[in-house]
């Protein structure tokens, strides 16, 4: 029969120990007393932790209750200490273990144990890249005021130095960055800070700032330092912009002049070299022609000495042919009659320069020109005959 069935009087399976309760039949079906159950649980805990069994008198009950409370407190405290003695570190962190305030060791990522209440673990992220931004207004070497925005990226290389050597590492980095920035900007002129020298200035700031961090033993390493912006104060921005525009115009004009010089000078040198080559070639051509003429004359003189008459006639014919080749008029010598002039009109028209906008002579123009020439010849021939008759009449 189950322990909780009705009429289970004196049931040995009753966990609440209510075997003797309900001496009357009218109380056998009532639920167990919670106070009685709690007292029994406290008795068992006292037995486990050496508190002794519970007595029926009042003094023994008081002693057993206090001993059970202490036992529960000890169990809870043990559980809390167990949970506090276990900790984990992820892949980006390193743990700096402090035992009683003194550095003990540096642990790697993973599951680790520590002594409760004795050890303290400081987790430091050593892979994340952190950023520092500062803005400062300062004087340059030429006593001009500039506003500079600096961006520095860094990470923790030594977790022990970062956690223990200095109290506020980020604050120390900010102060060191301000000092390095002021030192380098104060050693440069305004044009270098605002224009082309900005990258070189950032490199010098990074070197100086890293030296400061090393001497302070902060455990931080710079990965990049960049000057985001450098500008004059707002009060003189308009004047500064005018100066910059003038400088840009100056640079543009200089570049244009250099480009023009680079285009003209090689061309002039090329023309000069061409003239020199042409003069040299002309000189060599004249010398070669003179030498050839002298050689020809020597050979011709040798032939002339052998046959003077034949050589003279040949020279005469060659000379006349050379002269008539370039002549536009031909005079025909007729034996026993008057000399006649022959005009090669086609050759004459070829040698005449064309008028601007003209399209050339047509056949009608040639016919009209021929008629004019024939009339002119007849007129001259008639005048010649008249003069001859007059001479004969005299």
Q: What distance separates the N and C termini?
A: 197 Å
Which residues form runs of ≥5 with pLDDT under 50? 1-10, 12-29, 51-62
Q: Strand percentage, roughly?
A: 15-25%
Order of helices and strands: HHEEEEEEEHHHHEHHEEHH
Strand order of the largest sheet: 3-2-5
Return the CATH architecture of one domain.
2-Layer Sandwich
Question: Structural class from helices and strands?
Answer: alpha+beta
Major sheet size, sense and barrel closure:
3 strands, antiparallel
Helix content: 55-70%
Helix run count: 10
Q: Would you tell me the overall average pLDDT?
A: 76
Would you give the CATH topology of one domain?
Answer: Tetrahydropterin Synthase, Chain A
- The CATH homologous superfamily of one domain is called Band 7 domain
What's the count of strands? Answer: 10
Report the top-level CATH class of one domain: Alpha Beta
